[in-house]
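Case study 2.
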Amino acid sequence: MKRLRSEDGSASLEFIIIAVGVLLPLTYFVLTVSAIHRAHAAAAHAVREASRILMRADSFPVGNAAARDAAALAFADHGLAPPDGSVRITCTGACLTPGSQASVDVSWDMPLPWIPEGLDGPVTWPIRDSQTLVFDLYRSDPV
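Prediction:
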């Protein structure tokens, strides 16, 4: 019995169609999601370390500078360099006094990998994290 249609050579064509149509977008999706997750983990790490440093500081100017350095180091640990001004430290009341509050916020827009700039600029994903600290009522003044 003779076959009506020959299927010689169709496997390579099907592989190319599946690789381009399915595997490349799936690979890009996985890489993009992992980059977003890495950025969120870096932001959480930066907020945690900056808060920890600020809580232990003896004065606000020294603590503010050290907290910003700790946040930059946390981002560098994850291979990221967010833009300047992405880490904000604000206080309610007199900073570092018993009962006062400080807030550490990280806010930046991470450009998505391998996407060219659009008409309004790069395509970005918002990365946000924050923590509010309450300084201990029994905090002693530095000696």
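The mean pLDDT is 87.
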